[in-house]
Specification:
By secondary structure, the chain is α+β, with helices and mostly antiparallel strands. 43% of the residues lie in helices and 20% in strands. It is elongated, with a radius of gyration of 36 Å. About 3% of the residues have low confidence.
Length: 317
């Protein structure tokens, strides 16, 4: 039994997963941040930690294993205990236990378990599709200081009175030309609006007459079909369910359409389920109404096709 697989599945939906008689894996949300020195952007995520003091069985892990493997609850508890015993024996011998997609476990000199979380997976489903990236620093030039420096060296003096009086005296006909241009513009606008209204009225009257003629023709016409076509019955499978196995999310919709077609060519009932809160087009392998069926399908896909596939619980409109 791969215990880390079941723990990893539960960490997407719960903040605490207790392994009886061993410890608890905890998650807490960390907001997105920007490193001021390296200019690197880090998306929001769930940080993973381990608490050796929490060992009381709360039933979450055992019930999940019993449901997935379709075994009694007590048998699931026994399988967990056997796996924990094996892990502890390896730790006592000084070996490092590597839990896939979770982290590494190692005993320190005091006999306590040290945990180093994995950095290759983000258990925050809201941040799916986001990754770390680095931007270049934006440099801004201060133009105001440059202008002030130029003004100190070359002062500029403007005399409005002289400019106005000279231009008015030398070219008085500009005033009359401006007034005439304003009247021409207003007259053109009024004429254009009047002409446009006349065209609209003409088109409306013509449309009403055409509609009346069409109604008269339809009332007089008689439709007779001598050889009607046979009725065609199409069976379309409706993809429903709130449990979706996600294959990926794409910023460009054309890429999501291409992914859907690729999965359909491989026999999956792939489709798009809409755009998430980050503007990404989500593509799923399939949708299911039964959670156990969805988990079994997810395990098969992770084993045979895509180990990064994950289960999304979402009610679609």
């Amino acid at each position: 039994m791969q215990l880390e697989t079941y723990i990893s599945d539960l960490l997407y939906r719960y903040d605490c997963v207790i392994v009886p008689n061993f410890g608890a894996f905890l998650t807490h949300r960390i907001s997105a941040k920007l490193h001021e020195t390296t200019h690197s952007f880090y998306p929001p995520k769930k940080a993973l930690s381990f608490n050796e003091q929490l060992q009381t069985n709360d039933g979450l892990l055992a019930n999940y294993i019993a449901e997935v493997e379709k075994i009694p609850y007590i048998v699931a508890v026994e399988k967990i205990a056997k796996q924990v015993k094996s892990i502890k024996s390896y730790l006592i011998e000084g070996e490092t236990i590597e839990l896939n997609n979770i982290g590494d476990l190692l005993l320190n000199k005091e006999g306590n378990i040290n945990f180093e979380p994995s950095q290759h997976i983000n258990y925050l489903t809201d941040a799916f599709g986001l990754s770390q990236f680095t931007t270049t620093q934006v440099s801004r030039e201060v133009y105001k200081e440059s202008v002030e420096a130029v003004e100190k060296v070359i002062p500029i003096a403007i005399t409005p009175e002289k400019r106005v009086s000279t231009s008015s005296a030398s070219k008085p006909y500009f005033k009359y030309a401006a007034i005439g241009l304003i009247f021409l513009t207003i007259g053109g606008l009024i004429s254009s609006n009047y002409y446009g209204n006349q065209i609209d009225n003409h088109n409306q009257i013509a449309q009403e007459e055409a509609n009346e003629q069409l109604d008269a023709k339809l009332q007089e016409a008689t439709f007779v079909i001598n050889s009607p076509l046979p009725a065609a019955t199409l069976q379309v499978e409706k993809l429903i369910g709130n449990y979706h196995i996600v294959a990926g999310a794409f910023r460009v919709e054309a890429n999501s359409d291409k992914k859907v077609q690729q999965l359909k060519d491989k026999g999956f009932k792939a489709r798009k389920i809409g755009v998430n809160r980050y503007g990404l087009h989500e593509v799923v392998y399939s949708s299911h109404t039964d959670r156990v069926e969805a988990l079994n399908t997810l395990r098969t896909i992770k084993r045979t096709h895509n180990r990064d596939a994950w289960l999304l619980v979402k009610a679609l409109d």
